[in-house]
Amino acid sequence: MFGKSLAIIALIFSFAFLVLGSTDAFAAAHSSGGHKSVPSGSLSLVLLNSTDGLAHWDHQVTFNVSTTATTEPHVSLKCSQNGVVVYSAQSGFYASYPWPWTQVMTLSSSAWTGGSAECVATLYYFSGANSVTLATLSFTANP
User: Cβ(65)–Cβ(43) under 8 Å?
Assistant: First the structure.
């Protein structure tokens, strides 16, 4: 009896592998070269009140964004001092975004009262409950 049950289980697994293998082969044969399209975008820093062409603490920045992956791109900005996040902001960068004034970010916070910080801006969009990163940009905010 045990041998018969084992044979049935083996047959079921064999059939499952056969079906899954056929599905993968079918998908590969009917895909466009087997390459998956990776969404991309570009992100550049815009200094709003810099007198020397550098980002500084307590100055304002915004970003130029470009992407064909979505009509609703967002930018997240995080700045850290000695590995501790002292500033975090995010905003939508599209015409119908309901809070457009948040696209201008002031490089200071109650946790960041001076000094330089390492900053990373991330261009992303939402895909359902997930976010998809399109580009990142690192810069130093000087004292």
Answer: yes
For residue 59, the SS3 value is coil
Q: What is the dihedral of CA 109, 113, 118, 124, to 10 degrees?
A: 10
Regarding pTM above 0.70, the answer is: yes
Residue type, 116: S
Long-range CB contacts (< 8 A, 24+ apart) of 108-113?
108/57, 108/58, 111/84, 111/85, 111/86, 111/87, 112/57, 112/79, 112/81, 112/86, 112/87
- Strands laid side by side in the 41-47 sheet: 41-47, 60-67, 105-106
CA distance 3 to 9: 10
Apex CA 115: angle with CA 93 and CA 90, to 5°?
15
Each residue's pLDDT tens digit, 83-123: 999 999 999 999 999 999 999 999 999 999 999 999 999 99
The secondary element (H helix, E strand) that includes residue 14 is helix 2-29
pLDDT in tens, 63-82: 999 999 999 999 999 999 99
In whole angstroms, give the CA distance from residue 100 to residue 11.
61
